[in-house]
Amino acid sequence: MRIPLKVIMLALIAIFLGLGISPGGAFANLKPVASRPAKRSAGAAKSGNVSFAEFKKSATQNIAPVPNFNNLCSKPSSQTSRACVIAAIEAINNAHMESHIPPVKVNIANLEKLNGPETLLAAVNLERIARHKKPFVGLTKFFDQVARKAAESKTDPALSSGELILGRNGYVSDWGGNWAENVTSPLAANYDFVYQDGPGEFNLLCTVGNTSGCYGHRENILGEYPYTLGACGSLKPELLMGASVLNHHPRYNNPPSITELFVGICVKHPIRPYITWADIERKLLVGNSLLVTN
User: Fold this and answer.
1) How far apart are CA 197 and CA 219, in angstroms?
2) Who wins on pLDDT, 235 or 252?
3) Which of 59, 170, 190, 278 shows its CA 20 to 30 Å from the CA of 111?
């Protein structure tokens, strides 16, 4: 799937003018996204620009989870079990060590208590702040609804043309979405997105012969929102997320489905998430820090 930006632009220029928002400022930073089917995961990845090519060039190779948490996290009932959570965090820290970034140190007891979307927000932001990137502010109910519909439909979360405008408050500058199927643990899914998104793993559009789709999920998680510095002009840039975790339903034979929606917005007034990263960060703190320096 590719967002028809030219069509969106023609359809919405009049609306932008009516809202007093510069259409050039909005669409200059909206990028095409490509849907990438995979064995267990798929997602919308920003592509078609120099920065994305440079991102892939600098991305690490696949890093297998050590310890291998797949058996511990394979059942819906085990996704938040202490054994699964500890194994996933240990695997993340091993990947951090191989990537030469600080390890994660979190309050495991409180991490276990987070629900699925909250765990995804935590996993994403822990990866971002370890690399000195701005974290997502939090989850909004609307973007959660978009993510849930995508999880139910087993597809990438996507924003329609009508959802790119935030009333008179501003607009969406860019977005990306990830989807994982047949994985019950949010921590495990996010690990695969970040560290097993290259050739030979779950990304069918990332092969030795064709690497054009490699590292798209990873780039969605670690990328910049808004994409271009100064893209918001006089408006304020803000990073928001939506997320959904649907467990296996034996009655309907539905496999687990997990989605993440990442949204960069440009607004006059901040949008208040129903769950903020600040709320979760306080719960996960060990001492005064989420990270331990090397």
Assistant:
1) 10
2) 235
3) 59
